[in-house]
Design brief:
The protein is built from eleven helices and eight strands. With 258 residues, it is α/β, with parallel strands linked by helices. It has a single domain, classed as TIM Barrel (Alpha-Beta Barrel), CATH 3.20.20.70. The chain has an eight-stranded parallel barrel with strand order 1-2-3-4-5-6-7-8, surrounded by five helices. β3, α3 and β4 form a beta-alpha-beta unit. The two termini are 27 Å apart. It binds 2-phosphoglycolic acid. 2-phosphoglycolic acid binds next to β8.
């Protein structure tokens, strides 16, 4: 275990990123099936990040449960002439507690810049939302042995002039997202330990020891336990497998019934 990780109790965080999947009716059916499957599970904090259109339905469903609500993106102003955008205030209005920021699909498909990710992290933090800040290298960057440098830059630029507390970071190697090819738990630990060192260097060890750092990229019921065995890995950000209620429930239960 990295020295920084030791001595801090970090509750595990298992977050579902539904991406652009599910209608309202499908979200309601998922929640009806999912909630009983995780009843009594208190070891991990479970978060559902549905599309914006499903936030009210999922909010209603999680009302009397421990499950938290999150969004997949946010804009950096609270209101104004920003067609198509959703503000931190609007997410709070829907009882969102978390928000994913800087996901690689937004970086690579939608051209999200480091400067805008920094603005979003600042706005979310100042509003009281907990960011799930995504970083990770592409296959090309990994093959050129640039993974550490890239992730270090993403952290430095995203968190410039900002120290969110609380903060969650998701290490998601781009080549592992939606491909079925996950990073090995040892490789993920190596990068996540490094991320914690970067955070400690940027600010201080005490804060870095409290940040929850998740792994994301082809997490499934059958491999979640091997990631959570790693000392610096505090949870997972789950795409594909979070769309199927029994699979996501098994992941929230750390691979039980896998
Ligand atoms: P995946 O997606 O679990 O389908 O690989 C992870 C993510 O994009 O957050």
């Amino acid at each position: 275990m990295s020295k920084i990780a030791a001595g801090h109790a970090r509750k595990r965080l298992i977050a579902a990123n539904w991406k652009m999947y599910k209608t309202i009716a499908e979200a309601e059916r998922f929640m009806e099936e999912f909630l009983p499957l995780i009843a009594g599970q208190t070891e991990a904090e479970a978060v559902i990040c549905p599309p914006f259109t499903c936030l009210p339905a999922v909010r209603q469903a999680v009302r009397s449960s421990q499950v938290q609500l999150g969004a997949q993106d946010v804009f950096w102003e609270n209101q104004g002439p920003y067609t198509g955008e959703i503000s931190p205030a609007m997410l709070l209005d829907l009882d969102c507690r978390y928000v994913i920021i800087g996901h690689s699909e937004r970086r690579h498909i939608l051209g999200e810049t480091e400067a805008n990710i920094n603005r979003k992290l600042k706005a979310a933090t100042h509003a009281g939302l907990i960011p799930i800040f995504c970083v990770g290298e592409t296959l090309d960057q990994r093959e050129k042995e640039l993974a550490r440098e890239i992730v270090n830059q993403q952290l430095a630029k995203g968190l410039q002039d900002l120290r969110p507390d609380p903060l969650a970071v998701a290490y998601e190697p781009v080549w592992a997202i939606g491909t079925g090819v996950n990073a090995t738990p040892e490789d993920a630990q190596e990068m996540i330990g490094y991320i914690r060192e970067c955070l400690a260097r940027m600010y201080d060890e005490d804060w870095a020891g409290k940040v929850r750092i998740l792994y994301g990229g082809s997490v499934k019921p059958g491999n979640i336990a091997s990631f959570l065995e790693q000392p610096d890995i505090d949870g997972a950000l789950v795409g594909g497998a979070s769309l199927v209620a029994p699979d996501f429930a098994s992941i929230v239960r750390f691979g039980e019934n896998a």
